[in-house]
Design goal:
The chain is α/β, with parallel strands linked by helices. It has 6 helices and 10 strands; from the N terminus they run E-H-E-H-E-H-H-E-H-E-H-E-E-E-E-E. It has helices spanning about 40-45, 65-75, 90-95, 105-115, 135-150, 175-200; strands spanning about 5, 55, 80-85, 120-130, 150-155, 205-210, 215, 230, 240-245, 250-255. A hairpin with a 4-residue loop joins strand 9 and strand 10. Helix 1 runs parallel beside helix 2 (about 65-75) and helix 5 runs parallel beside helix 6. The chain starts with a strand and ends with a strand.
Length: about 260
């Protein structure tokens, strides 16, 4: 065993549905004093002997807490990688999406996560073209991406699905507007991704070799993120220490 991936619709809600007191609501934070939680689970898993990674996927921003941040920051097995879909940063759009958070909360949370978990890699996703999104809302999102410089970002165009609340909303945007905003966001992210990759040149990384010449670092989730291209002689299924020698748009090259 070299990697454990914890995945659910909302990993941060683990155990909270079984709290016997103070029933949780959408804004409840992870709190081990009230019952089993993701933080307590991670502490137990961290006691397992061996050399392996634990990776968190699909966490909800509303359920994060200082306890969870501290637990990850002190863990020897939980990798410093977090998948936290944010969807938007405009207060109006977050409200329309019923995300249970606002822009100020998101900005503060990201700062606390990075302060409490040094060298944290953050993967997130955003939706552009949601009903009612104005150019001002979209510009706010672009400015947020430029300033925050997430490590991994996915941007999706809103798609109208019959039977959903979004489908019944007013203010649906044209396909042309949605495509334009998606293209503008991707152009920015490609530039930021290139800058991030170039900053890795010369750094040493610990990677997990998955196939001949292909490995993943702490910052690369399986089948989602980029890869690290390594010498084909490195043993498959093992960790290796490499030095980054180059960077492509989404992948790194190492020796």
């Amino acid at each position: 065993m070299k990697e454990i991936n914890l995945i659910s619709q909302d990993t941060t809600y683990f155990g909270m549905d079984r709290w016997t007191e103070a029933r949780p609501n959408p804004r409840s934070k992870v709190d081990s004093s009230k019952g089993e939680s993701l933080a307590s689970l991670l502490r137990e898993l961290d006691q397992i002997e061996g050399d392996f990674w634990i990776r968190l996927l699909y966490t909800h921003p509303a359920h994060w807490s200082d306890e969870l941040i501290e637990t990850i920051g002190q863990s020897k097995h939980v990798v410093r990688y977090v998948d936290i879909p944010l969807q938007h940063v405009s207060d109006k759009m977050l409200g329309a999406m019923q995300r249970e958070t606002d822009g100020a909360y998101i900005r503060d949370l990201i700062e606390r996560m990075r302060a409490g978990i040094p060298e944290l890699v953050i993967r997130t996703t955003f939706i552009v073209g949601f009903p009612g999104e104005t150019e001002e809302d979209f510009t706010e999102l672009l400015a947020f991406l430029e300033k925050t410089k997430f490590d991994r970002v996915g941007v999706f165009k809103y798609s109208k699905e019959e039977g959903t609340k979004g489908a019944k909303m007013e203010g649906h945007l044209t396909d042309e507007v949605k495509a334009d905003r998606h293209a503008r966001a991707m152009l920015l992210l490609q530039r930021l991704s290139k800058q991030r990759g170039e900053a890795f040149v010369g750094r040493k990384l610990r990677v997990l070799v998955e196939s001949p010449g292909i490995a993943r670092s702490v910052g690369d989730a399986m089948e989602i993120d980029g890869v690290v291209k390594v010498p084909k002689k490195l043993p498959i299924g093992q960790f290796a220490e490499v030095t980054v020698t180059g960077a492509e748009e989404y992948d790194l090259i190492a020796k």
